[in-house]
């Protein structure tokens, strides 16, 4: 380990806060090491996560750096608290991003963003540091590095040194400090380190029992706007009320969760995180609020996930629907309808959060990457890929939404514009299911016949048929049914290897792929079909590590570096075991994942560094989705087992 490695925290040790517009990662030492404002896809203002030397950060912590913090979420919320305890006292740092409400906005235009006010004061990040016992010397370090630390910035302290303004050509950031006249000691100054392109503001202060300071950060469109924000607007706000209101909003939302089975705390925590990844202005969902975190230290598999994949979004909405949350699906479908398309060929696998079609990928060569893991990427070239599975995932999600009559709650009719879109997607699958594609894992090589893609083409037709029959919608049903049967037969002939006794990654292949574990979960094959039972056995034998955690695949994919285990695949394996009646085996693996993953995906209210299951962008929506689905499947399987014993 190099000296600089000591400045990096484990990826899974971070707490995450957000307001359904953006998010920030908070380390256990009180440092915000990643933050894009005002939106998920805005250039990062704090990016020490990707370069410990050059990247910006915002830390509030004891001056004695040996005092580590313990993090937890306030119950049923995304408000994070970090507590520092020393011999002379105890302080608590409360971090949150205020919300007005958690309802998705009505879709208006592709230009939707968070700039409701010229100075951006409607969205901010608030940090309240308070002393509960004794006293403690504390230090604040504020280093803003606009535009991923590319842009030089001008930093200045405002009047009475109660705030900071950092401006560049691209971004304008302001920090207001409230309460400095109510404490015994406070000093603040600016430092320029050797060869540092960005100044650091350092404040020293001591808090005694009952005392506190509030730090409020916001962004503006101009230097003038951010100056007013710091010198006036933020000072007029009642952050105690905003904290109370934000807690109330999160708790009111999660109270609608209909799941009451085992692991309910983990399920609710995952649901809260998924909601935090919803972009309120449009209804889009980001796969993760971070970019370029590696699958292995020093590896090159570092991608930007701050965009909306139709697949990941459909998975997210499916999971939320399972828990009783429907508004998010309605908002997403309205976003989907406003995308520019004429047929299935126009439908991309991913978009920007406002519906942007162009997401050019570029390298930030000036950043060293997390623990030296380069390259650091912004944008995602996978936007140009062809992935046939997305059609099935979109239709599966909408089918579930309609099957529970949720559309009636909002006064919608199944035979409207959404069905026109869905029928176009089904027709596209009818014409193109025999095409090659890049598959669910976005393998950057020559397109081929992926088994999972073919299965999801079958799902697209199956769900289209179901919806057309149930709601008497216009469709070429006989043709659709015939093609559905043709796809099923084709997969059984070319996608199953009788010698290996397993479904494979590609047609007429021997390599395994954990994505095939989704087959019984979408109704393509019975979970106790001998071919599925043997596929699970081959997966356990050849596609898991010593703890039973599943890899996506193990064969060459054209990229340097190795694959890490993939949490979602492990949860798919758990679901298969449960559906096959191996309930105790499934439960033990489920609990091993929770124990080993710890905060990877923020499964519980407590946040503490533990052994990580794998690296990767954080927090990934897929992890939470899979946990919710696994918990509900395992719960149903356990109930069936109890009922069978009673009978």
Please characterize this protein's 3D structure.
- It comes from Ktedonobacter robiniae.
- With 647 residues, the protein is α+β, with helices and mostly antiparallel strands.
- It is built from 15 helices and 24 strands.
- The protein has a 16-stranded antiparallel sheet that branches. A two-stranded antiparallel sheet has the order 16-17.
- A hairpin with a 4-residue loop joins strand 2 and strand 3.
- The longest helix is centred in the C-terminal third of the chain and has 26 residues.
Architecture blueprint of SSEs:
Elements: E1 15-18, E2 23-26, E3 31-36, E4 44-46, E5 57-62, E6 69-73, E7 80-85, E8 89-96, E9 124-143, H1 146-149, E10 154-157, E11 163-167, E12 172-178, E13 185-191, E14 200-208, E15 212-220, H2 223-233, H3 239-254, H4 264-276, E16 278-279, E17 284-285, E18 308-309, H5 310-322, H6 327-337, E19 350-351, E20 362-363, E21 377-378, H7 389-403, H8 406-409, H9 417-432, H10 451-471, H11 477-494, E22 496-497, E23 502-503, H12 530-542, H13 567-579, H14 583-597, E24 606-607, H15 621-646
Antiparallel strand pairs: 1-2, 2-3, 3-4, 3-5, 5-9, 6-7, 6-24, 7-8, 8-9, 9-14, 9-15, 10-11, 11-12, 12-15, 13-14, 16-17, 18-19, 20-21, 22-23
Helix pairs in contact: 4-15, 5-7, 5-15, 7-10, 9-10, 10-11, 13-14, 13-15, 14-15
